[in-house]
């Protein structure tokens, strides 16, 4: 009899926890997001950007994975960064030619990276004069 009561109590607790999580997701869907967040920037460099300057910009972006540090823990928080030149035969003639893709564990880390991280902001200040146009897309795989 006691085991039946214990199982019933566990089911009730699980049901309440599920209800609370569902309510939180509906009231603020971003509050419980645990999926990794991808920040992709498609870049069209301007005509004054030399091959050397573009290579330097990509190397700087790569280095952000180690130089961007969490403001409280001091640990690197960028899960990965990739940078590369477009090689698709489907690319329009006047579209972006490079892409930078950074992955983060949370929206909060991505937001800190974009708006506050000193290493990222410094890189942007240096690279911005080379950029003609940039398109940004943030997403979590599986979220619709």
UniProtKB/TrEMBL annotation:
Gene3D superfamilies: 3.30.70.100
Domain Stress-response A/B barrel: 37-139
Cross-referenced Pfam families: Dabb
Highest taxon of the lineage: Eukaryota
InterPro entries named among the record's database cross-references: Dabb (IPR013097), Dimeric_a/b-barrel (IPR011008), HS1/DABB1-like (IPR044662)
Xref: PANTHER family: PTHR33178, STRESS-RESPONSE A_B BARREL DOMAIN-CONTAINING PROTEIN (PTHR33178:SF10)
Subunit organization: Homodimer.
Protein name: Stress-response A/B barrel domain-containing protein
